[in-house]
Design goal:
The protein has 430 residues and is an alpha/beta fold. The protein has a domain of 102 residues: Leucine-rich repeat, LRR (right-handed beta-alpha superhelix), CATH 3.80.10. The longest helix is centred in the first third of the chain and has 10 residues. The radius of gyration is 48 Å and the shape is elongated. Its main location: cytoplasm.
Length: 430
């Protein structure tokens, strides 16, 4: 039967142009049976090639689907997105110490103290000396024990003028790292200052303007042989012997402000005869009845390298002082305001000092004679500044300028913040 079915197709008409192909279901059954394959039975419901109208007629009405409207919209199927494994977030413990220190350097003082209470590691990093190099506490109120805790962190530059300072409570801290300090016009006891300066031996710049001191404080200051700038303007409470100790031990002193102190004639004579020769800028004004010609002569003899000298309000000085001032070959800035025994006509003698650049003579020269004096001394600037800048830590408005002798204080305390001893608790967790 297999051979008979195959022979019915002539060999000569396989590829002919006029090939008439006829195929019936009976022949397909015979062909598959001859090949040993049982043919699949056709489903009577098969609608693969059945016209749509015929399908509708064959389907019962209850099973007919509603005809769909022709949709010409082209829809682009989105490729399925493979889910990527989620990377775990970085832990704070994985951040290196150097990066954390860099982050901490942008914090204010209160925030840094809060970070120190997070864990032991943050407490260790927050106490790093690089973060506490410069500290600004201008105009704040510091409770007892606060300043001592701050200084133990290794502060080098401390700026706190007009600050109310409680007892520092420095215990077992050894030598402090303080080098540049401004305590001008602070509210602080002499015992607190004594406690602070007893631990200081590296001071280079110090401002104590307007404070009440003691012989013990002056003795502690005298231990800082590297002192370069010292401002004691308006201070009181120490003896001439204590002042002598400072002047003899601080041999590197170049800027010294000793104006308007509560001095006797003995204080003035002791200072004038013991000024170190290293001084180049000196403010020795405000001694109306104590500074005489003899003290000025001793001062000029001991300090021949003076470039700035302020002798304002020394009413005992006479025109004879010009002969002494001419012995200072490097003198550039001179203040003689309110030295009333010096008449305006004698000021023309300063034209002979070629090194002189500025001259302050407020109260001596009237407005009419000032213009004539400026024309007679064209190379000298007259009455350009009301206040002396000798050994002053901050120039201009201290509320905006946070510099101290040209060093900008980085770590500051916000105006709304306050410090209490409880802010320095050590953490107990890990």
């Amino acid at each position: 039967m297999e051979r008979r079915a195959l022979r019915e197709i002539p060999a000569s008409s396989r590829n002919g142009p006029n090939l008439n192909w006829s195929w019936t279901s009976r022949k397909s059954v015979e062909l598959f049976s001859g090949m040993g394959v049982s043919p699949m039975e056709k489903d009577p419901q098969d609608t693969e090639n059945t016209p749509r109208d015929l399908i509708m007629k064959m389907t019962p009405p209850q099973k007919r689907a509603a005809p769909r409207e022709k949709d010409d919209t082209f829809v682009l199927a989105r490729r399925p997105r493979f889910s990527r494994p989620v990377k775990p977030a970085m832990s704070w413990h994985a951040i290196p110490d150097e990066l954390l220190l860099n982050i901490f350097s942008y914090l204010h003082l209160t925030d840094l103290l809060r970070a120190a209470n997070v864990c032991k590691r943050w407490n260790r990093l927050s106490c790093d000396e690089s973060l506490w190099y410069s500290l600004d506490l201008c105009g704040k109120h510091l409770a007892d024990g606060v300043l001592g805790r701050l200084l133990s962190c290794g502060v080098v530059v401390l700026r706190c003028p007009r600050t109310a300072i409680g007892e520092p409570m420095l215990t077992d801290v050894g030598s402090l790292r303080l080098q540049h300090v401004d305590f001008s016009n602070c509210t602080v006891s002499t015992d607190a200052l004594q406690n602070i300066f007893a631990s200081c031996s590296r001071l280079q710049n110090l401002a104590l303007e307007g404070l009440e001191l003691s012989d013990g404080i002056m003795s502690s200051i005298a231990q800082n042989s590297d002192l370069i700038r010292l401002n004691l303007g308006g201070c009181s409470g120490f003896s001439p012997e204590a002042l002598t100790a400072v002047l003899k031990n601080c041999t590197k002193l170049s800027e010294f402000n000793l104006s308007w102190c509560d001095f006797t004639a003995e204080h003035v004579q002791t200072a004038a005869s013991n000024f170190p020769s290293s001084i180049t800028e000196l403010n020795f004004s405000g001694y109306r009845q104590n500074l005489e010609q003899s003290e000025l002569e001793g001062l000029a003899a001991r300090c021949p390298n003076l470039t700035s000298l302020d002798l304002s309000d020394s009413v005992l000085l006479t025109p004879d002082c010009f002969d002494v001032l001419k012995q200072l070959p490097h003198l550039q800035h001179l203040g003689l305001s309110r030295c009333y025994q010096i008449c305006p006509a004698t000021l023309l003698e300063f034209g002979k000092i070629s090194s002189l650049k500025t001259l302050e003579v407020f109260g001596i020269v009237t407005d009419s004679s000032l213009q004539l004096l400026k024309e007679s001394l064209p190379h000298i600037k007259i009455n350009c500044s009301f206040f002396s800048t000798i050994a002053r830590p901050t120039m201009g408005t201290s509320k905006r300028n946070r510099e101290i002798w040209g060093i900008k204080c980085k770590l500051t305390l916000l105006q709304t913040d306050a410090l209490w001893p409880g802010d320095f608790l050590y953490p107990t967790d890990t």
